[in-house]
UniProtKB/TrEMBL annotation:
Protein's UniProt keywords contain Manganese: no
Species, as recorded: Monascus purpureus (Red mold)
Stored InterPro entries: NADH-Q_oxidrdct_subunit, NADH-UbQ_OxRdtase_su21_C_fun, NADH-UbQ_OxRdtase_su21_N
UniProt lineage: Eukaryota, Fungi, Dikarya, Ascomycota, Pezizomycotina
Protein name, entry field: NADH-ubiquinone oxidoreductase 21 kDa subunit
TM spans (from-to): 40-57, 69-90
Keyword tags: Membrane, Transmembrane, Transmembrane helix
Amino acid sequence: MVSNQQEVLVPPKRVNTDYPLIDSDPHLRRVFGYARPSDYAIAGGMAAVSPISFWVMERVSPSHVGRGGFAPVMRLATAIGLLGGLHVLYQRSCNRFYGFTENSREVEMDMREMVDKVKKGEPLYGTSTLSPYLQGVAARNSRYSELFVHVIPWFNIVNHNQHGVDTAKYYQQAERELEAESAKAGSS
């Protein structure tokens, strides 16, 4: 039996992809923060499909329920559209974190964000009030959860250090940048 004082690290399975893995368990804030403008545009279009198609169906073949019947159903169609749009946005952004689709922009954003945190002496993935054991439980439960989010909406909202990437690259890049800055300052 593992005590609450021990940290249990279960390494995530590496998936062979054409693009680099950024994070196998991205935090919800990072997913929406790294989303591209095109993701928001596509998500907005997908969100509009449901109410627009319902409105068109009502115009083509009226239900004759009157004003009192159409409005609640239109609100429901809009809510369904918004949830679908958010799902598309979340999925597109997560696929880039996992390396399933082209992600060069996100790789650069991740490197910049993490190197800046290293330079400031901050923890890479934030601080958590949970014990290391519970952070591991949270990581194991939400790792690659986006692949099944259409069935069970499960998101990572816990800060932990188990993201399936070697964080040494951030420290090495920060060291190179600090050396370059000190060499530049020394030559001035």
